[in-house]
Structures are given as C-alpha cells and as structure tokens.
Fold this protein.
Amino acid sequence: MVKFKDFIDTTFREGQQSPLLYDARKYYFTLEEKKELLRGLVNLGISYFEFFSPNVNLREKKHFFQIKKYLRSISKRKIFLLSHCRCKQEDIEASIKAGFDGLNIYMRVTERGEKIYRKSKKEILHTIVDTITTIRRKYPRIYLRFSIEDAFRTPLNEIFEVYDQIYPLVNTFGVPDTTGIATPSDVERLIRKLKKRYPKVNLEVHFHNDRGLALINTMVAIQNGAEFADVSIWGIGERSGIASLTGMLLNLFYLDKNLVKKYNIKLCYPVNVLMGAILKTQVPYNEPVSLTNRTHIAGVHQNAILKEKSNYETHSLEEFGVTKNQLLLGPLSGWHFVYYYLKEVKNYLISEEEAKEITKEFKNKIQRSKENLDDLLEKIAEKHSLEKISIPKEFAKKRVEKLNGTNHIGKVGVIKR
C-alpha cells in the first residue's frame, strides 16, 4: 500500500559528496549556489532538506546560518531542515544549537561497526539506546530519525534488536542501502517486514546507485509502504549517487498523479538545468527529465517523429518543463529528415526525389569532410541549384512548424565536428 508523504532532498549533504563536484573542480557549493538551488527546490515543492552536521566544517556551519535566514525570505511554507548526525553527543548538541528542525542519526551495528567504532555490539546497542532516549527526553519536540547504516547487509534480527528498543521514541526509521547492494526483491521483503513490525513509525529509504538500481529500489520501497525517500538533483552523491529527484517525480506521476500534485513539476527541468549551469556541464544523458530524452538521431526515428511525435515520445515531459525536442542532422539521418531540414529550416524549394539524391551524396561526403554538417549539406543543396525562399526575420523568428497538423515548436540541430 502506498503511504508516500514526501522526499528528503539531500543535494546539500549527499550531493556535495559527489565525484561530479570534483570533476568540475568545485569540491563544494558556494553559498550563492546553495541559495539558487534552494530557491528552485522550494519552488518545486520540496519541504525537507538534509544538511551536514555543523561539526563537519566551519564553512558548512556558516552557510547553514545564512541558508536558514534566506529561507525565511523566500517561503512562508514550513520547511524542515535536518542535520545528518553521527550518534555522538557533540554532533547532536551542535545541530540543536544551530537551529535544525530535526536530527538524522545513524550508526552501524554489524561486525564492521565493531571495527569502525572499536566497540562491542553490546556497547554499540547501549550507545544507540542511550543517545535516542536522551534526545527525546531533552528535546521532546525535535523531529528524530534513526538509521541502521548499511541496513541491507545487516541481519534482520540485529535490526529488530535495535529498533524494538527505540521505536516509541523516533518519528522515523531510516532504511539506507549504504553500499548499493539491494535488489528490488530485497527492498520489497525488508520494507514489508519493517512496516508490519512498526506500523506507526515512518520509514525513510536511501538507495545508492552502485548497481544502477537506486531509482527502481526507491519506487519499490514506496509501493510497499515507505513514507519518505531520499533524493538529490540528478541523483548526485557518494560514488554513483542515489535516486534522482526529478526521475522519481516522473515515475510517481505515472504511478499515481495524486502523489505529485503538491509539487510544481514544471520546474523539474529548469532545476536540472540550474545544476548543469553550476557544474558547467549538460544534464546527464541518463536523467529522465532532460532534453536528451527528446533528442532523435536515427533516420527511422526522425521520420517517425516528423509524422507523429508519439511514435517515439510516449512520456509527457512537457509536464516536467521539457518544452522542446531535437532532431539532429548527422550520418544516420535519412532522406525524410534531410527533406524536412532543407525545406522547413533552410527554406529551400525541394522535391522528395531531390532530397533522396542529396541525402545519398551527403552521406558519402560526411566520412571525408571536416566541415560542420549543416554547411556541408547546404553546399550540396546549392550544387543541385535549389531555389531558396527569402523569409523576413520578423516572421522567421515567430515561425511555428507544422508537424502532422499539430502546432509544434521544435529544434533542429547538427552534430558538430
């Protein structure tokens, strides 16, 4: 049963652990970039944000104070700011003092945890129970989540041993696939068992993408009762990242539109583009809400799109802010697209037979030419003495191309050499 409540956006915590920032030689988001991203996410409808604990470094601490102040100026809606804390008193007290609305506390309980913390399982269990009990006693109104780190490699009986002792004290149990090892069947099994045992406690899931399963695992968790899901813009995060925010919104939209009705989903693509501007790169090719997902290169595809968009565009990406598509001229283009390109974009008078001749010559010359492909195609068109219509600029700019009787503003481009 779907009980989904909201996303926890962790772009400002998990996202800053992404190798993509290092690829861009940024290492962290500046305060102004955080403000831009926060504004976009708040306008999109996100209400929960996870940050580093103030103890991570002085820059993050200072940024949080500025972000908290800035947030009051851009939104009257209640926004929850959550601190990602170790199960340590110094992290907790620093987060409370900084003014966080909630604490996301985590700790391992397996043999790996014993080696990391240099504590026995009994000592780890005592630390968790004592810490959670103390927090709830001292701060009864704080939002409190506890996660057993690496949940999918932790024996179920060990999870129960911890959660049985603290479930009356927390708002939410975290279920993190810290190493990206879980499969959808693993997710279904664990979420159902946890919901059955702790029906009054929210579940928050966090899936890493080491096996490329973060998005589908998040969907399966929601379908089986998880109330919250961790996401980030583009799914950026440690190693291969986590589930993509806009990818999840797209998939929930097709699961049940009511699940996303509180989000301004038309801002999905603009938010993705904003991240691209900050990282100085394109929206990733595997991001569902992207112009790449509306780009057609093979001749068969281009011909079908020119006849009817739904032949290869089945998802309503317009709902998510992708308002254009692209047909790219290149070595795989067929005569249908060459005909369309020369006639509708370059304003030549051309017959279908002429387009077939020009396409054959164009494909032969592509392999040897270093010219931009549109320049090459125009030279061939001129060689065939095609007449060109002159269209005044004021009309050309406002031109709406007709595709299968439907007004459609598209973009036709070329593959650059």
Remarks:
- The chain has two domains: 6-279, 291-414.
